[in-house]
Amino acid sequence: MLDIRWIRDHSGAFDHALASRGMEPLADRLIALDEARRGAVQRLQDAQTRRNTASKAIGKAKATGDEAEAQRLMAEVADLKSEIQAGEEAERAAAAELQAILAATPNVPFDDVPVGPDESANVEVRRDGEPVSLGFAPKEHYELGEALGLMDFETASKLAGSRFVILKGGLARLERALGQFMLDVHTLEHGYTEVQPPLLVRDAALFGTAQLPKFAEDQFATTDDRWLIPTAEVPLTNLVRERILNADELPVRVTALTPCFRSEAGSAGRDTRGMLRQHQFNKVELVSITTPEAALDEHERMTACAETVLRRLGLHYRVLTLSTGDMGFSSRKTYDIEVWLPGQNAYREISSCSVCGDFQARRMDTRYRPADGGPTRFVHTLNGSGVAVGRALIAVMETYQREDGSITVPDALRPYMGGIETIG
Questions:
Q1: Catalytic annotation on 8?
Q2: Helix axes 67-103, 27-63, angle to 10 degrees
Q3: Topology (CATH) of 119-423
Q4: pTM of the model
Q5: CATH topology of domain 4-103
Q6: Which stretch of 46-55, 181-190, 371-380, 411-420 has the lowest confidence by average pLDDT?
């Protein structure tokens, strides 16, 4: 959530940032609401002061036997009570409207983020390796999986509907191996602490990371006022909610391998074949909590951690800076890592790494005490995929496929596969 004081002081920059995201100006409306709230607070305080003064004067009037004055003052106090109640309602209404608009307003992009309406304006930063040349016409992952009898969409549909899959045998083990491999890389080499968080969270947790209220239709809700997590970013980032950390506790770096659940409300007709866009999928998430000064370096570090996984797996990829029209609601800057899929002859997203500034920290009320002893400050939060396990499985299957339909297990995964070298 953005700071209304910053908006008041930088109204032009705020509206310019919204315009870069394709939104109409909001500064004047928000400032007017804030003025209304501040005016209501001031009138309320004035009325309370007058009531307190009149209440004291009643006692004095009674003590001197001036009953007429006492009655007049009592009538004034009664009128002020109604005025105070009306003032409290006006203040609450203005504050609620202001908060509702702020809660639905996206973060301000950094100045170096490319401006554009959608993914067409994304800018490529770098590539690693070259697309693999297989020497034969490559198949897509679902063709390989179904031919092996290890990927079953039909039975999954009978059990749960569309956008689900059942993995069996070697492919089920390969996906498990991928998740374990990623966790080991991030915990043993990159200094992240592994966490097993709840998969169900309350409204406040989703609000803290800004999935609520704006993106409620993208979530799966339970019947007891909880939500299935769309990503482990939600519970991991909220580990520090409503806390004041010491500077020497930062950075906090945590990771988790969890199922993720998304309704894919806006993706009708997109990626209907295969595993690319599922209601349930596994992902290794990376979350960092740090100081404002360290956040940009942490963003580069986190992205490099995700890239390490793909390089160890021998997968070709590229890194993009997302444009203002394609980046997420909470982000100030996002790198997307896109892996090459030979079967699709295309790059597809496998990780997004975002720096969010204090946007989420304000929603979670998370601060830290600077080492110099100054006033507390909001932390800065970052999150990224390290990486999406299901999409890594797709990339491994398509990259390491053989002409006979079998799949070679990458060297990095063989220790996790009991030495199995081929799935066929």
A1: no
A2: 160
A3: BirA Bifunctional Protein; domain 2 (3.30.930)
A4: 0.92
A5: Helix Hairpins (1.10.287)
A6: 46-55
